[in-house]
Design brief:
Blueprint (H helix, E strand, L loop, with lengths): L1 H15 L6 E9 L3 E2 L2 E2 L6 E9 L3 E12 L2 E14 L2 E9 L7 E10 L2 E8 L4 E11 L4 E10 L5 E9 L2 E8 L3 E11 L1
């Protein structure tokens, strides 16, 4: 039922946004390890992902998918999201769906930037967990960028630090989960 409601919301949002202001874009990516909030989603294996975004006058909606692996079971993840900007804040809703293994959940989120620092907060109404992250990016050279991210979840006591070094469409990520486990991943993405 939740999936039908979400798809109805997504289609309705796309219909609401007039085609005169609409822009459709897409992305495809490959990575040696799919990290999400400091944790591997592929048991340290590789992943292929892709998504489509629809942006209109003040609104956006999209879908994104990737392969996953949890507990030795290969599966997939589908994310559906919709959002808008209100007084300098990016606010929205996202649904994470895992058809193979279950564990679907949803979040409401808000993000903004202040003095170059990106602030992001997500709230899961089912678990009542809040996730917060702070990111700061700098241009090292004209072609090399670095982004530092700190993230924490309210109920799981999981903290992580991540450094992303980007050169054009190539990104190398170094993730430190709880100060105990450093992992590195290389990712390449294309936008169209």
């Amino acid at each position: 039922m939740k999936n039908i409601t979400l798809l109805t919301l997504f289609v309705g949002a796309c219909a609401f946004i007039t085609s005169a202001y609409a822009e459709v874009s897409g992305n495809i990516g490959v990575t040696s390890n799919y990290f999400w909030r400091g944790q591997t989603q592929t048991e340290d294996g590789s992943a292929v992902s892709g998504g489509l975004d629809y942006a209109g006058e003040g609104y956006y909606a999209g879908v994104w998918a990737s392969n996953t692996s949890f507990g030795g079971v290969a599966g997939e993840e589908f994310d559906f999201y919709i959002g808008t900007e209100i007084n300098g804040f990016d606010v929205g809703y996202i649904s994470y769906m895992y058809p193979t293994g279950g564990g679907d959940f949803e979040e409401f989120y808000a993000g903004t930037s202040f003095s170059g620092v990106d602030i992001f907060v997500a709230y899961n109404p089912d678990s009542e967990e809040t996730f917060t992250s702070l990111s700061y990016g700098i241009d090292v050279t004209e072609t090399l960028g670095a982004t530092f991210t700190y993230g924490t979840a309210s109920d799981s006591d999981l903290d992580f630090l991540q450094l992303d070094l980007s050169y054009d469409d190539l990104t190398v990520s170094i993730v430190d989960l709880e100060g105990l486990d450093y992992k590195v991943a290389a990712s390449y993405g294309w936008s169209f």
